[in-house]
Structures are given as structure tokens and as C-alpha cells.
TrEMBL record:
It holds the Pfam family Peptidase_M76. InterPro entries: Peptidase_M76_ATP23. One of its GO terms (cellular component) is mitochondrial inner membrane. Keywords: Hydrolase, Membrane, Metal-binding, Metalloprotease, Mitochondrion, Mitochondrion inner membrane, Protease. GO terms for molecular function: metal ion binding; metalloendopeptidase activity. Its EC number is 3.4.24.-. The keyword Lipid biosynthesis does not apply. GO terms for biological process: mitochondrial protein processing; mitochondrial proton-transporting ATP synthase complex assembly. The keyword Iron does not apply. Has a dual role in the assembly of mitochondrial ATPase. This is Mitochondrial inner membrane protease ATP23. Signal peptide: none annotated. It comes from Wickerhamomyces pijperi (Yeast).
Length: 244
């Protein structure tokens, strides 16, 4: 995996060298059965005193968790590809632009940032297996990234142009469903629900643009989002209207 395209989605695909994935245990049997149970109990009760054994245990534990997360992520992905109306529709619309997207372009991996996923114009979509909460979260995340995929195919976005980036972020947050009513209540509770769909979209778009290395500050991100807001928020292509 090459260095991520800066600001491509606000949820950039990390460069391979920045992803801290634990190494595979030399013997997978060492994390199964009685031996795994013994080491787990020793760790929990403080009886592992050898620093090397402790380090290896923690490495194996993280590796096992990553494998489990990876399997679950791919199960959620396959569910979305086969049953999510939004994801299926977006894939059909991207295909109409002569860009083929398959499961080979949508991968799960470990991410060391608090991001649900990312889009790379040459590599495709990354879903952050250690950040995905459930299949509904993955559905929204994948839909978000597929809006970026669509924008790239239709408009040839310059991701280092903050206005281009802001426009795609506004569209992705608005059209993916991640700012729908129930999602806002889940994340923020009823006390903050009054912000509404548009405020949610603005907030998320601003955070993503602010993460673009070309952007100098959050204030600049807010300014750019506001400058392109009307035209980009009202552009619901390829949908007829915003899904809420």
C-alpha cells in the first residue's frame, strides 16, 4: 500500500509503514487451547514475570483480536455488498461511469487512527476493522467512501484542492446516511440532537477538510466548507434526494 492521498476522504488510508499490526505468532497453536488458557490466566493474575514471555503474550493477544476483527469486518462487508440498498445502488451508479468496483477494491485492515475507513483513488476503499462498531456502522462508512468513489469517477476530483475535497465530504456525509436522525441520537444523545442533519454534515465535513495537510487550520476548513456549501449540499447525484 502506498502513501495515502492526503485529504482524499478525511478518513485517509494510512501508509503501510504507519499501520502498527502485530506480527503473526510463530506457532498459531500457541494461542489456542490449554496453552492459551494457561497464559491468559497467568497474565490476568500477574504470574507472567518473564518480560519476553509477557511481550509475546500481548503480541499474540493483539494478533488474535485482529484476526477476529478482520473476519467480522469481511462478514459485515459482504452483507452490505449483497443486501444494503444504498451500497448496491452506489456500486451500480459507479459502474455506469465505466469504473468497476468489486470486493477486491474494498478491504478490511487495522487502522491506528480513530477513523472508520478511507478512500484512495488508485487503491479503493479501506474499512478500519478495529473501528467498525457493527454492520450498520460499516454500511454507512462504506456508503460514504463509495460517494467519494463516484465523485472521483465522475468529476476527477483534485483531493489537494480544499474546495474539491470539501464538496465531496459534504456530499458523502449527507448522502451516506451517517447523519440520519437515529445515528445522531446514538452518537450525541437527545441533548445535542437539535443540531440536525445539516449541522452534522457541516461538522463532519469540516473535521475531514481540517485533516487535509494542505489546510492550515480548522477555521480555514470551516471557511471552505461554507464557501461551497450551497452548491454541494444540494447536489444529491446520483440520488434523487437525501436519504434521512
Amino acid at each position: 500500500m502506498t502513501q495515502s492521498t492526503p485529504g482524499a476522504t478525511g478518513l485517509d488510508i494510512p501508509a503501510a509503514e504507519t499501520i502498527a499490526v502485530p506480527s503473526e505468532p510463530k506457532d498459531l497453536n500457541s494461542i489456542k487451547g490449554f496453552e492459551w488458557w494457561r497464559r491468559t490466566m497467568s497474565y490476568k493474575t500477574g504470574f507472567i514475570s518473564d518480560p519476553q514471555e509477557l511481550k509475546q503474550y500481548e503480541n499474540d493477544l493483539q494478533y488474535k483480536k485482529n484476526q477476529d476483527d478482520c473476519k467480522q469486518c469481511y462478514e459485515y462487508r459482504d452483507w452490505a455488498l449483497n443486501y444494503s440498498p444504498t451500497v448496491i445502488f452506489m456500486l451500480q451508479q459507479i459502474k455506469k461511469l465505466n469504473v468497476a468496483v468489486s470486493d477486491k477494491n474494498i478491504i478490511c485492515d487495522f487502522c491506528n487512527d480513530w477513523k472508520g475507513g478511507g478512500f484512495h483513488p488508485e487503491l479503493g476503499v479501506l474499512l478500519c476493522q478495529n473501528r467498525i462498531i457493527d454492520k450498520w456502522h460499516l454500511e454507512d462508512t462504506l456508503a460514504h467512501e463509495l460517494v467519494h468513489y463516484y465523485d472521483e469517477a465522475k468529476f476527477k476530483v483534485d483531493w489537494l484542492n480544499l474546495k474539491h475535497h470539501a464538496c465531496s465530504e459534504i456530499r458523502a456525509s449527507s448522502l451516506s446516511g451517517e447523519c440520519r436522525v437515529m445515528n445522531q441520537i446514538k452518537r450525541a444523545g437527545l441533548a445535542r440532537f437539535g443540531r440536525g442533519h445539516q449541522d452534522c454534515v457541516k461538522r463532519r465535513a469540516t473535521l475531514s477538510v481540517a485533516a487535509n495537510p494542505v489546510c492550515k487550520s480548522k477555521e480555514e476548513a470551516e471557511k471552505v466548507v461554507n464557501e461551497v456549501w450551497d452548491s454541494c449540499f444540494n447536489d444529491t447525484r446520483p440520488f434523487e434526494q437525501i436519504y434521512r
